[in-house]
Write a structure and sequence with these properties.
single chain, 2 domains, flat
Length: about 110
């Protein structure tokens, strides 16, 4: 890891976030969340670099760590399939019927009209 005491955003990131706020293109809360996420991503990368540089783990560890800490959001298609399965098979852990309907409808609306 670097010897810097903190994670510091780049000038480009600072200008971009400042512009989004001052030009009122984005809500301040959204920009703060983006900044927080960028710092967390940078910290995770520094930790991975440290472990890698010091050969502390096997190579699969880095991908596993990143996947565990930054899971990908399921696509709308995946969400719709999960919602449909939950509806058909009665998974009590899945949301209400209206939510299931909304997810499946959104996915269907994205299909091309033939």
């Amino acid at each position: 890891m670097t010897n810097s005491p903190s994670i510091v955003p780049s000038e480009t990131e600072l200008r971009q976030w400042e512009s989004l706020i001052l030009d009122e293109e984005e809500n301040v809360d959204v920009v703060l969340i983006q900044a927080f996420q960028a710092g967390a991503d940078q910290e995770l990368q520094e930790c991975i670099n440290f472990v890698y540089d010091n050969e502390l783990c096997d190579p699969n560890f880095y991908n596993d760590l990143r996947s565990a800490r930054r899971p990908k959001t399921p696509s709308l298609k995946e969400q719709a399939c999960d919602a449909l399965d939950a509806y058909v098979y009665g998974n009590p852990d899945h949301g209400d019927k209206q939510n299931t309907y909304n997810i499946i409808r959104q996915a269907l609306e994205q299909l091309p009209n033939d």
